[in-house]
Amino acid sequence: MAENEGQERTEDATPRRREQAREKGQVPRSRELASVAVLVIGAIALMWFGESVGEALMETMRKFFTLSREEIFDVTLLGRIIYGAIFHVTWPLAQVLLMLFVAGLIGASALGGVSFSWEAARPKLSKMSPLQGIKRMFGMQSMVELLKSILKVALVAGVAFYLMWSSIGDFYQLNVEMFPTNLYHALDILLNFVLLICCSLLVVVAIDVPFQIWQHNDQLKMTKQEIKDEYKDTEGKPEVKGRIRMLQREMAQRRMMAEVPSADVVITNPEHYSVALRYDSKIDRAPVVVAKGSDFMAIKIREVAAQHDISIVPAPPLARAVYYSTELEDQIPDGLFAAVAQLLAYVFQLKQYQKGRGRKPTSLADQQLPIPTELRR
């Protein structure tokens, strides 16, 4: 985007940016960690299983060099000998190769985890561009790789020289030892040299791993404008979100107004609040608020109630208490049971009186509704 040009990438990458980068195969990787893991584990594997591999190879060679005339000219018998020799050598070699495979897998996935991405494997023309190649040759990454190579050569040469100098006595000892003792001794020295030289490369790994993590985080950094754009994409633009909330409120209000005809009574604070209550003993354990509103919405509730012949009773303290203490589709609080029961009894008696079946009830204004102090508003 044009508006992002010239802005510095100073902000840490967001979780979404990191997830997108991972989907593209952009994860921190350390080739040094993978290669050193294979070298060290390979040296250990040779120390553990090298003797069995050597014995298997010597036994195979001894068998091949002592074949009898019958074994040479009998194809079936010769095939069995060859298959047996291969099997005899395969198992110790398989142990070494299995350890190398596990070491390579762990070393490659230890930093950045396991990640498969078709996009990263897809050929890109930009990678074949001579200009891009020149930039990579003289870029920061190339300089770091050059320094790592110099450090590795220096480490290997220095450690090798130190080991040879410190083991010069063992070298002299090899001259006076008898075969095959001197051969085994030389192999032990060689394996120890290999293991120690491989372990010395852990210094390079200790430098490379933090650098790869830092470089990865630096490449993913974002500008302030990119963070704003991402927030808009994920959360939505403020005006769109406001429109959605308005539509949601309108839908909720329509659903609420559709429930008003099911109410038994509408309690009002004549100027500001209206609360519609329903009580059906078959489905409700206590009176339930099916609609409530203030100001304009309170007027609309009263209008719908009047259209459906729902009793509208002015009871300001009770209307305010129910309005502030109860949400839609919730039962009224325990503290208001007595007041609401008294109100419903009044409504029932009033309906009976209007039908000519009873005497006129005492005006609700003359009655003292029991509303707890903590619920009064």
Automatic annotation (TrEMBL):
One Gene Ontology cellular component: plasma membrane
Lipid bilayer topology: Multi-pass membrane protein
GO process annotations (BP): bacterial-type flagellum assembly; protein secretion
InterPro entries noted in UniProt: FlhB (IPR006136), T3SS_substrate_exporter (IPR006135), T3SS_substrate_exporter_C (IPR029025)
Location of the region described as Disordered in the Swiss-Prot/TrEMBL record: 1-27
Keyword entries, A-Z: Bacterial flagellum biogenesis, Bacterial flagellum protein export, Cell membrane, Cell projection, Cilium, Flagellum, Membrane, Protein transport, Transmembrane, Transmembrane helix, Transport
Subcellular location: Cell membrane
Transmembrane segment boundaries: 33-51, 97-118, 150-169, 189-214
Keyword Metal-binding: no
UniProt superkingdom: Bacteria
Gene3D superfamilies: 6.10.250.2080, secretion proteins EscU
Protein family: Belongs to the type III secretion exporter family.
Family matches, as NCBIfam families: flhB
Function: Required for formation of the rod structure in the basal body of the flagellar apparatus. Together with FliI and FliH, may constitute the export apparatus of flagellin.
The protein's name: Flagellar biosynthetic protein FlhB
Biological classification of the source: Bacteria, Pseudomonadati, Pseudomonadota, Gammaproteobacteria, Vibrionales
